[in-house]
Amino acid sequence: MTKIINILLIVFFCLQNSNAQDARAKKILETLSNETKKHKNIAIDFKFIFENKSQAIKETQKGSLIIENKKFILNLEDQKIINNGETQWIYLKEDNEVQIMEHDPDDDLLSPEKIFTIYENNYKQKLIKSEKISNTTTKHHIDLYPKKSEEFIKINLTIIDSKSMRLEKIIMQDKNGGTYTYIIENFDSNTNTEQFNFQVKDYKGIEVIDLR
Question: What is the CATH T-level fold of the domain 3-210, as seen in this structure?
């Protein structure tokens, strides 16, 4: 599965810590996680920016992610990935090619159905600040640091706290100077979603590569 999925799914790690700020961060993450668990499904539109200043690289693209239990649909500019919990389809838009494979839940560090609901012990958390942006809305900034060596040396979460909590931005820094920024432009839940299956008949002249 692509790196972009893994980054989107590594978001919330609620840990035990005696520090007062960390206890507050833990409470914020738990509230967000518990609210998200109530939804039948989640639909996210996001903007993705990858930047490595030392290598003069800056890439931007938009995408969407739909998650319902163990099923998900990730739609990017160049590919679409559909997973129904048993089978996964990767459609390469430019090549008009689809790769079909069995879903292996052990392939990734985190599986898609766990988004916003992960409780792991790999990261230490710290509430950097909470700022009031209106009479009814607060913005929380939380940093996560790995306890052991991990691909990402720091993850920063920006969370909007209004009538309900929602994730606004994820910034992840890797060991090689790369920064991955995800800005969530739209968040919906309990919506009517498309089928979690890929219909080959809908794509004229498509090349099918069955890897099952």
Answer: outer membrane lipoprotein receptor (LolB), chain A (2.50.20)
